[in-house]
């Protein structure tokens, strides 16, 4: 397994496994604490593992955590997704950059998303399973949702949107979502 920095999003990494394939299929290590630690990420800092399953065309996102934020290690374990990260850390050298990836069960590549970045994806297959390792317990009071169709983000989703949650459909624009509250 190797760690590959993502230049467009400061602090983001792709963790590319080395699958061992034979006539039965393949075996692949999807997490290696030493490789994760080698790029300055605390491998013991993850406190929650979650899984989502989505149908083709479904969009989940764009989601962000307020407060101290939330770092994630995301992997498509089955199927394929179009994954999107937006750097919303004002002090970051890649502030407001948008970067897209295709993650799939065929490659088992994991994407590390630093705290302070918004994240979302569209399922390219029916179904797609996405595994998340998250570094903080979920607190719904800190949830921030940004419209997946915000023209400022200008995300070119590859498929027609078949379904989104009510929360994602009603999400405000980037500017509205990030306005300070009084």
Folded structure, characterized:
The protein is mainly β. It is built from three helices and 13 strands. A six-stranded antiparallel beta sheet has the order 1-2-10-7-12-5. It is globular and about 50 Å long. The model has no long low-confidence stretch (mean pLDDT 96).
Oligomer: single chain
Q: Helical region count?
A: 3
Class from secondary-structure proportions: mainly beta
What is the average of the pLDDT values?
96
Relative helix content? under 10%
Radius of gyration: 16 Å
Enzyme class: isomerase
Pathway: Carbohydrate biosynthesis; dTDP-L-rhamnose biosynthesis
Function: Catalyzes the epimerization of the C3' and C5'positions of dTDP-6-deoxy-D-xylo-4-hexulose, forming dTDP-6-deoxy-L-lyxo-4-hexulose.
Pfam families: dTDP_sugar_isom
Give the arrangement of secondary structure elements.
Blueprint: E1 2-5, E2 13-16, E3 20-22, E4 25-27, H1 33-38, E5 48-54, E6 59-65, E7 72-78, E8 80-87, E9 98-104, E10 110-113, E11 117-123, E12 128-134, E13 143-145, H2 166-169, H3 174-177
Antiparallel strand pairs: 1-2, 2-10, 3-4, 5-12, 6-11, 6-13, 7-10, 7-12, 8-9, 8-11
Task: Please describe the structure with a list of short key phrases separated by commas or semicolons.
182 residues, mainly beta, five-stranded antiparallel sheet, 3 helices, 13 strands
Summarize the structure.
The protein is mostly beta strands.
């Amino acid at each position: 397994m190797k760690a590959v920095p993502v230049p467009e999003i400061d602090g983001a990494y792709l963790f590319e496994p080395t699958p061992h394939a034979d006539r039965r299929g393949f075996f692949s290590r999807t997490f290696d604490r030493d490789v994760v630690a080698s790029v300055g990420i605390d491998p013991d800092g993850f406190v929650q593992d979650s899984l989502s399953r989505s149908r083709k065309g479904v969009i989940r996102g764009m989601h962000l955590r307020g407060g101290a934020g939330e770092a994630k290690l995301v992997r498509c374990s089955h199927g394929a997704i179009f994954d999107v990260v937006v750097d919303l850390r004002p002090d970051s050298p890649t502030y407001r950059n948008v970067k897209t990836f295709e993650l799939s069960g065929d490659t088992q590549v994991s994407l590390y998303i630093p705290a302070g970045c918004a994240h979302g994806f569209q399922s390219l297959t029916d179904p797609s399973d996405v595994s998340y390792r998250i570094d903080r317990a979920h607190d719904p009071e800190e949830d921030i949702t940004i419209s997946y169709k915000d023209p400022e983000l200008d995300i070119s989703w590859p498929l027609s949107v078949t379904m989104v949650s009510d929360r994602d459909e009603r999400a405000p624009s980037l500017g509205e979502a990030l306005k300070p509250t009084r």
